[in-house]
Sequence to fold (365 residues):
Amino acid sequence: MIGKKNTNYLKFKMFNNQTKVVLLFSEQGLILYHIDYEGDERVSFSNQIFSNKQIINKELFDELIANFIAKVDLPAQNAILTLSDSLVFHKEFILDSLLDINKEKINFLKNLPVKLKDLDCLQIKSEQKIHFLASNKTLYLSVKRVFENFNWYIEAIVPINIFDNIKNESLTKENIVQVLDSKKALELVDFLKAEEFDVGFEDKEVDLKNNPKSSLITLILISILVLLIASITIVVLIKLHFSLSNFISNKSNSNKQTLTIPQASQSASPKLEVAKQDLTIKILNGSGVTGKAAQIKTILENLGYKNIETGNTLFQNQASLISFSGKVSDDIKKEVQLNLQKNYPDIVSQNNNSDSRDILIELYK
Fold:
């Protein structure tokens, strides 16, 4: 039961200034959490109403949710609806040139114990993998509809497993803050926006002749590609011209001998380097995929690094970053970067580390 108001959590930035409620929807029931209050409100589903990821009796289900909303002593407001693992189907594939993404997606959906017309699916790329997340939309849309009949507004519907360190059974106050504060994840992994990810449930071919919008987009893409090829050709020709000119110039001066007096190199100033077990490392997960920071931590621990801290950061659609302080030797930089490139081939390395740690790793796509 929702209890005494707790003002300690009002300092956190929310997904929406008016959003303070998180709903956890599972096969067992529905739980309501409010950021300002201790405890929760919950309703359980019997087998006569809900079973095997299906609503058995729609009228009783709607009535049960409606009575639950009426019982909660809260005014109508915005809420985030999260789905437990029991309501979400998940499959992942390694990306390669032979993978037919649309074919694999259709095969994945056809093998699920839910009618195709009742499925919504999210298609998400992370590193070298592609993830399919599917759910029976009749379930969460029924909850959404009943809440909106009471003037509530469901802002997003997301799988609970996209958030690190959150269990399906119940949420802590810190979990609630994490969900409400994860703006990027709520925008990108939202079943209400499934169509924006090009994840329909029928394998249809697009008729460009009868689809003017698609034809226009295709024409624009072809034009951009032609201009890009032309630009690259011009650059190559210019470089070839200058290379030929330099070759002719060097050839004409080939009979001249040049005496070069080497200059004494200045000795580099000594640099304080730290052993790997004494280095401090921080790993931030901004990929939107659970467990990535922990995976990299295990790799580094196997290499002998000890002082490793993990955490989360906002999702960003950019290459992963690794930054080193001046204490890190070149050998350690090379070792860390080579091992990270096995999982993040596009990771960008830089020496200017503004963090207090010796090595800062930011995981994104």
User: Anything to note?
Assistant: Residues 276-363 form a domain with the Alpha-Beta Plaits fold (CATH 3.30.70.2390).
